[in-house]
Specification:
Elements (H helix, E strand, L loop, with lengths): L2 H4 L1 E5 L4 E2 L6 E2 L3 E5 L10 H20 L4 E4 L14 E4 L6 E3 L19 E5 L4 H8 L6 E2 L11 H6 L16 E7 L5 E5 L8 H6 L3 E4 L1 H7 L8 E8 L1 E2 L2 E6 L1 E2 L13 E2 L2 E2 L2 H9 L19 E7 L6 E10 L22 H11 L4 H12 L5 E3 L1 H4 L9 E9 L3 H14 L5 E9 L12 E10 L2 H16 L5 E2 L9 H8 L1 H13 L3 H6 L3 H5 L5
Parallel strand pairs: 4-6, 5-6, 11-12
Antiparallel strand pairs: 1-4, 2-3, 7-8, 8-13, 9-14, 10-11, 10-13, 15-20, 15-21, 16-17, 18-20, 19-20, 19-23, 22-24, 22-25, 23-24
Helix pairs in contact: 6-14, 11-12
Length: about 525
Protein backbone atom coordinates (compact mmCIF):
# COMPACT_ATOMS: atom_id res chain seq x y z
CA UNK A 1 0.00 0.00 0.00
CA UNK A 2 1.20 3.53 -0.70
CA UNK A 3 1.95 6.18 1.89
CA UNK A 4 -1.09 8.03 0.58
CA UNK A 5 -3.40 5.30 1.86
CA UNK A 6 -1.58 4.31 5.05
CA UNK A 7 -0.33 7.65 6.41
CA UNK A 8 -3.14 10.02 5.45
CA UNK A 9 -6.89 10.04 5.90
CA UNK A 10 -9.56 12.70 5.43
CA UNK A 11 -12.39 12.38 7.94
CA UNK A 12 -15.39 14.64 7.22
CA UNK A 13 -17.27 15.70 10.36
CA UNK A 14 -21.00 15.93 10.92
CA UNK A 15 -20.83 17.28 14.47
CA UNK A 16 -19.03 20.05 16.35
CA UNK A 17 -15.41 19.54 17.37
CA UNK A 18 -14.66 19.82 21.12
CA UNK A 19 -11.38 20.47 22.85
CA UNK A 20 -10.08 17.85 25.28
CA UNK A 21 -11.54 19.61 28.31
CA UNK A 22 -14.95 20.08 26.66
CA UNK A 23 -14.96 23.82 27.34
CA UNK A 24 -14.72 24.94 23.69
CA UNK A 25 -16.66 23.62 20.73
CA UNK A 26 -17.38 24.69 17.19
CA UNK A 27 -18.08 23.37 13.71
CA UNK A 28 -15.27 21.93 11.58
CA UNK A 29 -15.50 20.51 8.07
CA UNK A 30 -13.34 17.57 9.02
CA UNK A 31 -9.96 16.35 10.19
CA UNK A 32 -6.88 15.20 8.26
CA UNK A 33 -5.38 12.30 10.22
CA UNK A 34 -1.63 11.78 9.84
CA UNK A 35 0.18 8.57 10.75
CA UNK A 36 3.80 7.55 10.98
CA UNK A 37 4.97 5.12 8.25
CA UNK A 38 3.28 1.78 8.96
CA UNK A 39 6.49 -0.28 8.93
CA UNK A 40 7.65 1.91 11.85
CA UNK A 41 11.15 2.78 10.58
CA UNK A 42 13.73 4.37 12.85
CA UNK A 43 13.04 8.09 13.17
CA UNK A 44 15.17 9.97 10.68
CA UNK A 45 15.28 11.89 7.43
CA UNK A 46 13.33 9.45 5.23
CA UNK A 47 10.27 9.00 7.49
CA UNK A 48 10.27 12.75 8.26
CA UNK A 49 10.16 13.50 4.55
CA UNK A 50 7.39 10.98 4.01
CA UNK A 51 5.35 12.60 6.78
CA UNK A 52 6.05 16.06 5.38
CA UNK A 53 4.70 15.08 1.98
CA UNK A 54 1.44 13.99 3.58
CA UNK A 55 1.12 17.21 5.61
CA UNK A 56 1.67 19.18 2.42
CA UNK A 57 -0.96 17.01 0.76
CA UNK A 58 -3.45 18.08 3.47
CA UNK A 59 -2.59 21.73 2.90
CA UNK A 60 -3.15 21.35 -0.84
CA UNK A 61 -6.41 19.47 -0.25
CA UNK A 62 -7.85 22.14 2.05
CA UNK A 63 -6.71 24.95 -0.27
CA UNK A 64 -8.51 23.28 -3.17
CA UNK A 65 -11.66 23.28 -1.05
CA UNK A 66 -11.23 26.98 -0.31
CA UNK A 67 -11.17 26.40 3.44
CA UNK A 68 -8.81 27.55 6.25
CA UNK A 69 -6.95 24.96 8.33
CA UNK A 70 -5.27 24.69 11.73
CA UNK A 71 -2.83 22.20 13.18
CA UNK A 72 -4.11 20.15 16.12
CA UNK A 73 -2.46 17.84 18.62
CA UNK A 74 -4.21 16.93 21.84
CA UNK A 75 -6.66 19.84 21.75
CA UNK A 76 -5.58 20.65 25.30
CA UNK A 77 -5.94 24.45 25.13
CA UNK A 78 -8.86 25.95 27.00
CA UNK A 79 -9.16 28.94 24.67
CA UNK A 80 -10.62 28.75 21.16
CA UNK A 81 -7.16 29.14 19.64
CA UNK A 82 -7.50 25.84 17.76
CA UNK A 83 -10.93 26.33 16.19
CA UNK A 84 -10.25 26.76 12.46
CA UNK A 85 -13.62 27.82 11.07
CA UNK A 86 -12.62 25.18 8.53
CA UNK A 87 -10.46 22.07 8.83
CA UNK A 88 -7.92 20.52 11.21
CA UNK A 89 -4.59 18.81 10.48
CA UNK A 90 -4.10 16.26 13.27
CA UNK A 91 -0.43 15.40 13.87
CA UNK A 92 -0.90 13.75 17.27
CA UNK A 93 0.28 10.37 15.91
CA UNK A 94 3.57 11.80 14.62
CA UNK A 95 5.68 11.12 17.68
CA UNK A 96 9.24 10.41 16.51
CA UNK A 97 12.11 11.55 18.69
CA UNK A 98 15.85 10.94 18.88
CA UNK A 99 19.08 12.61 20.03
CA UNK A 100 20.96 14.70 17.48
CA UNK A 101 24.19 13.10 16.32
CA UNK A 102 27.34 15.13 17.00
CA UNK A 103 28.37 15.42 13.29
CA UNK A 104 25.06 17.23 12.58
CA UNK A 105 25.76 20.03 15.10
CA UNK A 106 26.98 23.35 13.72
CA UNK A 107 30.52 24.31 14.84
CA UNK A 108 29.09 27.64 16.05
CA UNK A 109 26.67 26.01 18.51
CA UNK A 110 27.12 27.76 21.85
CA UNK A 111 25.70 25.05 24.08
CA UNK A 112 27.70 22.22 25.58
CA UNK A 113 27.77 20.17 22.36
CA UNK A 114 30.09 17.66 24.00
CA UNK A 115 27.33 16.84 26.48
CA UNK A 116 26.04 13.57 25.06
CA UNK A 117 22.41 13.66 23.91
CA UNK A 118 21.76 17.29 24.87
CA UNK A 119 19.96 18.19 21.61
CA UNK A 120 16.88 16.21 20.62
CA UNK A 121 14.92 16.16 17.37
CA UNK A 122 11.25 15.81 18.30
CA UNK A 123 8.26 15.37 16.01
CA UNK A 124 5.48 17.84 16.71
CA UNK A 125 2.77 15.40 17.77
CA UNK A 126 4.83 13.99 20.64
CA UNK A 127 3.09 14.31 24.00
CA UNK A 128 5.22 15.93 26.68
CA UNK A 129 4.54 12.90 28.88
CA UNK A 130 6.00 10.64 26.16
CA UNK A 131 9.04 12.84 25.75
CA UNK A 132 9.65 12.76 29.50
CA UNK A 133 9.61 8.97 29.54
CA UNK A 134 12.07 8.71 26.67
CA UNK A 135 14.50 11.35 27.92
CA UNK A 136 14.57 10.00 31.48
CA UNK A 137 15.22 6.42 30.38
CA UNK A 138 18.56 4.94 31.46
CA UNK A 139 19.67 4.83 27.82
CA UNK A 140 19.72 8.62 27.69
CA UNK A 141 19.66 10.07 31.22
CA UNK A 142 18.25 13.41 30.11
CA UNK A 143 15.39 15.67 31.23
CA UNK A 144 13.37 18.69 30.22
CA UNK A 145 14.13 21.82 32.22
CA UNK A 146 10.51 22.79 32.68
CA UNK A 147 6.93 21.96 31.74
CA UNK A 148 3.46 23.12 32.60
CA UNK A 149 1.61 21.49 35.47
CA UNK A 150 0.06 18.76 33.30
CA UNK A 151 1.81 16.94 30.47
CA UNK A 152 -1.10 15.88 28.28
CA UNK A 153 -0.21 18.51 25.66
CA UNK A 154 1.79 17.88 22.53
CA UNK A 155 5.16 19.56 22.26
CA UNK A 156 3.92 21.96 19.57
CA UNK A 157 0.58 22.61 21.27
CA UNK A 158 2.36 23.63 24.47
CA UNK A 159 5.01 25.76 22.78
CA UNK A 160 2.77 27.52 20.26
CA UNK A 161 0.37 28.76 22.92
CA UNK A 162 3.03 29.95 25.36
CA UNK A 163 2.57 27.34 28.10
CA UNK A 164 4.57 28.77 30.98
CA UNK A 165 7.15 26.88 32.91
CA UNK A 166 7.54 26.17 36.56
CA UNK A 167 11.24 26.34 37.39
CA UNK A 168 12.74 29.29 39.24
CA UNK A 169 15.24 31.00 36.97
CA UNK A 170 14.09 29.39 33.70
CA UNK A 171 11.51 30.39 31.11
CA UNK A 172 8.45 28.86 29.47
CA UNK A 173 8.22 25.50 27.73
CA UNK A 174 9.03 27.04 24.32
CA UNK A 175 12.28 28.48 25.67
CA UNK A 176 13.79 24.98 25.43
CA UNK A 177 13.24 24.93 21.64
CA UNK A 178 16.26 25.97 19.58
CA UNK A 179 15.27 24.99 16.01
CA UNK A 180 11.97 24.71 14.13
CA UNK A 181 10.91 22.78 11.02
CA UNK A 182 7.98 24.78 9.60
CA UNK A 183 5.76 23.68 6.71
CA UNK A 184 4.42 26.93 5.27
CA UNK A 185 2.42 25.58 2.35
CA UNK A 186 2.28 22.63 -0.06
CA UNK A 187 5.67 23.49 -1.60
CA UNK A 188 7.57 25.54 1.00
CA UNK A 189 9.40 24.42 4.13
CA UNK A 190 11.69 26.38 6.45
CA UNK A 191 14.31 25.35 8.98
CA UNK A 192 14.48 28.22 11.47
CA UNK A 193 17.17 28.98 14.03
CA UNK A 194 18.34 32.17 15.73
CA UNK A 195 21.30 33.89 14.07
CA UNK A 196 22.62 34.48 17.59
CA UNK A 197 22.35 30.76 18.43
CA UNK A 198 23.14 28.42 15.52
CA UNK A 199 22.36 24.76 16.19
CA UNK A 200 22.56 22.37 13.21
CA UNK A 201 24.50 22.44 9.97
CA UNK A 202 22.62 23.69 6.91
CA UNK A 203 23.01 20.26 5.35
CA UNK A 204 20.47 18.88 7.84
CA UNK A 205 17.77 21.32 6.70
CA UNK A 206 18.63 20.67 3.07
CA UNK A 207 18.15 16.93 3.57
CA UNK A 208 14.56 17.75 4.56
CA UNK A 209 14.02 19.92 1.51
CA UNK A 210 13.71 22.91 3.86
CA UNK A 211 15.22 26.35 3.39
CA UNK A 212 17.58 27.11 6.30
CA UNK A 213 17.06 30.56 7.84
CA UNK A 214 18.96 32.01 10.79
CA UNK A 215 17.15 35.11 11.98
CA UNK A 216 16.37 36.01 15.58
CA UNK A 217 13.14 37.90 14.90
CA UNK A 218 11.70 35.26 12.58
CA UNK A 219 12.53 32.49 15.03
CA UNK A 220 11.15 34.46 17.97
CA UNK A 221 7.90 34.99 16.08
CA UNK A 222 7.38 31.35 15.04
CA UNK A 223 8.46 29.64 18.27
CA UNK A 224 5.35 31.07 19.92
CA UNK A 225 3.34 31.54 16.75
CA UNK A 226 -0.23 30.70 17.80
CA UNK A 227 -0.55 28.31 14.85
CA UNK A 228 -0.54 31.24 12.43
CA UNK A 229 2.60 30.42 10.43
CA UNK A 230 1.74 26.95 9.15
CA UNK A 231 2.34 23.47 10.53
CA UNK A 232 5.37 22.93 12.76
CA UNK A 233 6.46 19.40 11.97
CA UNK A 234 9.63 19.03 14.06
CA UNK A 235 11.66 20.96 16.61
CA UNK A 236 15.04 20.62 18.27
CA UNK A 237 14.80 20.72 22.06
CA UNK A 238 17.70 21.46 24.38
CA UNK A 239 17.68 19.11 27.37
CA UNK A 240 19.61 18.82 30.63
CA UNK A 241 21.00 15.88 32.59
CA UNK A 242 18.28 14.22 34.66
CA UNK A 243 17.83 14.88 38.36
CA UNK A 244 15.52 13.76 41.12
CA UNK A 245 13.30 16.23 42.92
CA UNK A 246 11.92 16.12 46.44
CA UNK A 247 8.54 17.84 46.50
CA UNK A 248 7.27 18.87 49.93
CA UNK A 249 3.98 20.57 50.67
CA UNK A 250 3.20 22.83 53.63
CA UNK A 251 6.07 21.17 55.40
CA UNK A 252 8.56 22.45 57.95
CA UNK A 253 11.53 20.10 57.78
CA UNK A 254 15.09 20.15 59.02
CA UNK A 255 16.06 18.29 55.86
CA UNK A 256 13.40 17.11 53.38
CA UNK A 257 15.85 14.54 51.97
CA UNK A 258 16.31 12.77 55.27
CA UNK A 259 12.90 11.73 56.55
CA UNK A 260 13.17 8.59 58.72
CA UNK A 261 11.15 5.63 57.51
CA UNK A 262 7.52 5.92 58.53
CA UNK A 263 7.85 9.51 59.72
CA UNK A 264 5.67 12.21 58.18
CA UNK A 265 6.82 15.81 57.85
CA UNK A 266 5.40 18.41 60.17
CA UNK A 267 2.61 20.16 58.27
CA UNK A 268 1.93 23.82 58.77
CA UNK A 269 -0.99 26.04 57.92
CA UNK A 270 0.13 29.10 56.02
CA UNK A 271 -1.84 32.26 55.42
CA UNK A 272 -1.53 35.30 53.20
CA UNK A 273 0.14 37.24 56.01
CA UNK A 274 3.11 39.60 56.15
CA UNK A 275 5.69 36.80 56.04
CA UNK A 276 4.03 35.09 53.08
CA UNK A 277 3.55 38.37 51.23
CA UNK A 278 7.24 39.15 51.63
CA UNK A 279 8.23 35.69 50.35
CA UNK A 280 5.92 35.90 47.34
CA UNK A 281 7.25 39.33 46.41
CA UNK A 282 10.97 38.85 47.10
CA UNK A 283 11.64 35.08 46.90
CA UNK A 284 13.77 35.57 50.01
CA UNK A 285 13.28 32.12 51.51
CA UNK A 286 15.70 32.77 54.35
CA UNK A 287 13.42 35.57 55.61
CA UNK A 288 10.44 33.27 56.14
CA UNK A 289 10.37 31.77 59.63
CA UNK A 290 9.23 28.32 58.47
CA UNK A 291 10.19 27.98 54.81
CA UNK A 292 13.94 28.43 54.99
CA UNK A 293 15.83 26.03 52.68
CA UNK A 294 17.37 23.04 54.45
CA UNK A 295 21.04 23.56 55.41
CA UNK A 296 23.34 23.40 52.40
CA UNK A 297 20.55 23.03 49.86
CA UNK A 298 20.09 26.54 48.50
CA UNK A 299 16.82 27.88 47.17
CA UNK A 300 14.25 25.44 45.78
CA UNK A 301 14.18 24.61 42.07
CA UNK A 302 10.41 25.06 42.12
CA UNK A 303 8.17 27.12 44.40
CA UNK A 304 4.42 27.42 44.18
CA UNK A 305 2.09 29.05 46.70
CA UNK A 306 -1.61 28.37 46.01
CA UNK A 307 -4.04 30.89 47.51
CA UNK A 308 -7.61 29.97 48.34
CA UNK A 309 -9.49 33.30 48.26
CA UNK A 310 -12.65 31.70 49.61
CA UNK A 311 -11.16 31.17 53.07
CA UNK A 312 -10.97 33.79 55.81
CA UNK A 313 -8.17 34.56 56.35
CA UNK A 314 -6.87 33.58 52.93
CA UNK A 315 -5.08 30.25 53.28
CA UNK A 316 -1.95 29.42 51.29
CA UNK A 317 -0.82 25.94 50.29
CA UNK A 318 2.91 25.77 49.58
CA UNK A 319 4.90 23.41 47.37
CA UNK A 320 8.69 23.50 47.34
CA UNK A 321 10.80 21.24 45.18
CA UNK A 322 14.51 20.64 45.77
CA UNK A 323 16.99 19.01 43.41
CA UNK A 324 18.99 15.96 44.38
CA UNK A 325 21.34 13.75 42.33
CA UNK A 326 19.93 10.85 40.34
CA UNK A 327 20.16 7.59 42.26
CA UNK A 328 21.71 4.57 40.57
CA UNK A 329 19.04 1.99 39.88
CA UNK A 330 16.15 4.40 40.31
CA UNK A 331 13.18 3.54 38.06
CA UNK A 332 10.55 6.24 37.51
CA UNK A 333 6.88 5.30 37.87
CA UNK A 334 4.72 7.37 35.52
CA UNK A 335 1.40 5.78 36.45
CA UNK A 336 -1.39 8.34 36.80
CA UNK A 337 -2.61 8.16 40.38
CA UNK A 338 -6.19 9.33 40.20
CA UNK A 339 -8.05 10.28 43.35
CA UNK A 340 -10.74 7.89 44.57
CA UNK A 341 -12.90 10.92 45.31
CA UNK A 342 -13.11 14.21 43.53
CA UNK A 343 -13.38 15.56 40.03
CA UNK A 344 -13.21 12.67 37.61
CA UNK A 345 -14.24 12.97 34.01
CA UNK A 346 -17.77 14.01 34.89
CA UNK A 347 -17.61 15.15 38.50
CA UNK A 348 -16.15 18.59 37.90
CA UNK A 349 -18.85 19.40 35.34
CA UNK A 350 -21.42 18.38 37.97
CA UNK A 351 -19.76 20.84 40.36
CA UNK A 352 -20.19 23.61 37.81
CA UNK A 353 -23.86 22.73 37.35
CA UNK A 354 -24.52 22.73 41.11
CA UNK A 355 -22.61 25.94 41.76
CA UNK A 356 -24.67 27.76 39.14
CA UNK A 357 -27.74 26.89 41.20
CA UNK A 358 -26.33 26.93 44.75
CA UNK A 359 -23.66 29.67 44.87
CA UNK A 360 -23.56 29.53 48.65
CA UNK A 361 -21.77 26.19 48.38
CA UNK A 362 -18.74 27.76 46.65
CA UNK A 363 -16.34 27.46 49.64
CA UNK A 364 -17.14 23.77 50.07
CA UNK A 365 -16.59 22.97 46.43
CA UNK A 366 -13.50 25.20 46.22
CA UNK A 367 -11.97 23.00 48.91
CA UNK A 368 -12.77 19.89 46.86
CA UNK A 369 -11.24 21.42 43.73
CA UNK A 370 -8.23 22.54 45.75
CA UNK A 371 -7.67 19.04 47.09
CA UNK A 372 -7.35 17.78 43.53
CA UNK A 373 -4.67 20.32 42.67
CA UNK A 374 -2.54 19.70 45.72
CA UNK A 375 -0.89 16.68 47.42
CA UNK A 376 0.15 16.81 51.06
CA UNK A 377 2.31 13.68 50.94
CA UNK A 378 5.98 14.35 50.05
CA UNK A 379 7.08 12.86 46.76
CA UNK A 380 10.50 12.11 45.34
CA UNK A 381 10.70 11.57 41.62
CA UNK A 382 12.02 12.64 38.26
CA UNK A 383 10.73 15.77 36.54
CA UNK A 384 8.45 13.61 34.43
CA UNK A 385 7.02 11.96 37.52
CA UNK A 386 6.43 15.24 39.32
CA UNK A 387 4.65 16.71 36.30
CA UNK A 388 3.21 13.59 34.74
CA UNK A 389 0.19 13.12 32.54
CA UNK A 390 -3.06 13.97 34.30
CA UNK A 391 -6.44 12.88 33.01
CA UNK A 392 -8.54 15.64 31.54
CA UNK A 393 -11.12 17.33 33.74
CA UNK A 394 -14.20 18.25 31.85
CA UNK A 395 -15.55 21.75 32.30
CA UNK A 396 -12.47 22.81 34.21
CA UNK A 397 -11.97 26.57 34.51
CA UNK A 398 -8.47 27.82 33.85
CA UNK A 399 -6.91 31.14 32.99
CA UNK A 400 -3.61 32.83 33.79
CA UNK A 401 -2.44 36.39 34.20
CA UNK A 402 1.23 37.42 34.29
CA UNK A 403 2.84 40.58 35.67
CA UNK A 404 6.31 41.87 36.60
CA UNK A 405 7.39 40.53 39.97
CA UNK A 406 7.25 43.97 41.61
CA UNK A 407 3.47 44.00 40.98
CA UNK A 408 2.85 40.52 42.39
CA UNK A 409 1.14 41.64 45.59
CA UNK A 410 -0.91 44.31 43.81
CA UNK A 411 -2.15 41.59 41.46
CA UNK A 412 -3.08 39.12 44.19
CA UNK A 413 -4.86 41.85 46.15
CA UNK A 414 -6.79 42.87 43.03
CA UNK A 415 -7.85 39.26 42.38
CA UNK A 416 -8.91 38.70 45.99
CA UNK A 417 -10.95 41.92 45.95
CA UNK A 418 -12.56 40.92 42.65
CA UNK A 419 -13.49 37.55 44.10
CA UNK A 420 -15.18 39.31 47.02
CA UNK A 421 -17.04 41.67 44.68
CA UNK A 422 -18.63 38.86 42.70
CA UNK A 423 -19.53 36.81 45.76
CA UNK A 424 -16.86 34.13 45.47
CA UNK A 425 -15.80 32.10 42.43
CA UNK A 426 -14.76 28.42 42.78
CA UNK A 427 -11.14 29.12 41.85
CA UNK A 428 -7.75 28.93 43.52
CA UNK A 429 -4.71 31.01 42.59
CA UNK A 430 -1.50 29.12 41.87
CA UNK A 431 1.57 31.36 41.74
CA UNK A 432 4.56 30.58 39.52
CA UNK A 433 7.80 32.36 38.64
CA UNK A 434 9.10 32.31 35.07
CA UNK A 435 12.18 33.91 33.53
CA UNK A 436 11.92 36.21 30.53
CA UNK A 437 11.54 34.82 27.02
CA UNK A 438 12.80 36.32 23.75
CA UNK A 439 9.68 35.13 21.91
CA UNK A 440 7.88 38.18 20.53
CA UNK A 441 4.46 37.40 22.00
CA UNK A 442 5.68 35.48 25.03
CA UNK A 443 3.44 35.46 28.07
CA UNK A 444 6.62 35.62 30.19
CA UNK A 445 7.95 39.00 29.02
CA UNK A 446 9.51 40.39 32.22
CA UNK A 447 12.91 39.46 33.71
CA UNK A 448 11.08 37.61 36.46
CA UNK A 449 7.49 37.10 35.42
CA UNK A 450 5.00 36.41 38.19
CA UNK A 451 2.22 34.14 36.91
CA UNK A 452 -1.09 33.55 38.65
CA UNK A 453 -2.83 30.46 37.35
CA UNK A 454 -6.56 30.71 38.07
CA UNK A 455 -7.91 27.17 38.26
CA UNK A 456 -11.05 25.50 39.49
CA UNK A 457 -14.61 24.79 38.46
CA UNK A 458 -16.22 26.17 35.31
CA UNK A 459 -19.53 27.91 36.10
CA UNK A 460 -21.15 31.32 35.67
CA UNK A 461 -19.15 32.94 38.50
CA UNK A 462 -15.81 31.71 37.23
CA UNK A 463 -16.73 32.94 33.74
CA UNK A 464 -17.69 36.32 35.19
CA UNK A 465 -14.44 36.40 37.16
CA UNK A 466 -12.30 35.75 34.06
CA UNK A 467 -14.16 38.41 32.07
CA UNK A 468 -13.49 41.01 34.75
CA UNK A 469 -9.82 40.20 35.45
CA UNK A 470 -8.43 42.52 32.72
CA UNK A 471 -10.61 45.40 33.92
CA UNK A 472 -9.41 44.89 37.50
CA UNK A 473 -5.78 44.99 36.35
CA UNK A 474 -6.30 48.04 34.19
CA UNK A 475 -8.10 49.90 36.96
CA UNK A 476 -4.98 49.55 39.15
CA UNK A 477 -2.52 50.36 36.38
CA UNK A 478 -0.88 46.91 36.51
CA UNK A 479 0.85 45.85 33.26
CA UNK A 480 -0.17 42.30 32.41
CA UNK A 481 -0.31 39.54 29.84
CA UNK A 482 -2.70 36.60 29.60
CA UNK A 483 -2.08 32.94 28.73
CA UNK A 484 -2.86 32.50 25.01
CA UNK A 485 -3.95 28.88 25.46
CA UNK A 486 -6.29 29.44 28.41
CA UNK A 487 -9.43 31.49 28.91
CA UNK A 488 -8.43 35.06 28.11
CA UNK A 489 -10.09 38.32 27.17
CA UNK A 490 -7.53 39.85 24.86
CA UNK A 491 -8.70 42.65 22.59
CA UNK A 492 -6.55 44.28 19.89
CA UNK A 493 -5.85 47.17 22.26
CA UNK A 494 -4.90 44.86 25.13
CA UNK A 495 -2.55 42.91 22.87
CA UNK A 496 -0.97 46.17 21.69
CA UNK A 497 -0.66 47.47 25.24
CA UNK A 498 0.97 44.23 26.38
CA UNK A 499 3.42 43.73 23.50
CA UNK A 500 3.88 47.11 21.76
CA UNK A 501 6.28 47.02 18.80
CA UNK A 502 6.61 43.24 19.11
CA UNK A 503 3.13 42.95 17.58
CA UNK A 504 4.36 44.71 14.44
CA UNK A 505 7.48 42.54 14.36
CA UNK A 506 5.36 39.38 14.70
CA UNK A 507 3.02 40.49 11.90
CA UNK A 508 6.01 41.41 9.71
CA UNK A 509 7.55 37.98 10.30
CA UNK A 510 4.29 36.36 9.24
CA UNK A 511 4.26 38.36 6.01
CA UNK A 512 7.90 37.47 5.32
CA UNK A 513 7.43 33.73 5.81
CA UNK A 514 3.95 33.67 4.25
CA UNK A 515 4.25 36.41 1.60
CA UNK A 516 1.10 35.34 -0.25
CA UNK A 517 -2.07 36.64 1.38
CA UNK A 518 -3.77 33.37 0.39
CA UNK A 519 -1.26 31.46 2.55
CA UNK A 520 -1.84 33.74 5.54
CA UNK A 521 -5.60 33.36 5.11
CA UNK A 522 -5.17 29.58 5.06
CA UNK A 523 -3.85 29.63 8.64
CA UNK A 524 -6.10 32.40 10.02
CA UNK A 525 -9.05 31.90 12.35
CA UNK A 526 -11.41 34.04 14.42
CA UNK A 527 -9.14 33.77 17.47
CA UNK A 528 -6.45 35.74 15.61
CA UNK A 529 -8.92 38.22 14.13
CA UNK A 530 -10.55 39.05 17.45
CA UNK A 531 -7.13 39.86 18.93
CA UNK A 532 -6.02 42.05 16.03
CA UNK A 533 -3.41 39.57 14.73
CA UNK A 534 -5.01 38.92 11.34
CA UNK A 535 -7.44 40.54 8.92
Amino acid sequence: MSDDTTMWEWLPQNRDWENWHKTIEGPVDGVYMHRYPPENPAFGIDPINRCTRQIQRSIAHTRAAGRPVRGIGRGWSLSDITLPQGRLIDISLLIGRKPIAAPQIDPGYQGESAERGKLWLVQGGTYISELNRTLEDNRFGRSLRTTGAANGQTVIGASSTGTHGSALGFGAFHDQIVAIHLIANETTQYWLERASYPVLKDSFAQSLGARPIRDDKLFNAVVMGLGAFGIIHNVVVETRSRRLFEAINNAHLTDPFDIPAGQQPVLNRFFYDADMRNLIETLDFDAHPQLKPPPGRGDPYFFQPILDPNTAPVEVLVTQMYEKPWLAGYTPNYAANESTFGPGYDFISVLGFLLDRFPGMTPTFANIARSQLFRYAPKTGSWGEQFGYKAARTKVASGSVAVPLDRALDTLDALIDLNTDIGGAPLVYGCRYVAKSDALLAFNKWDTTFVVSLDGVENSRSRDFFARVPQAMEARGIPFTQHWGKTNHYTPQRVRTAYGANVDAWLAAREELLPASADRALFTNDYLRVRGLAD
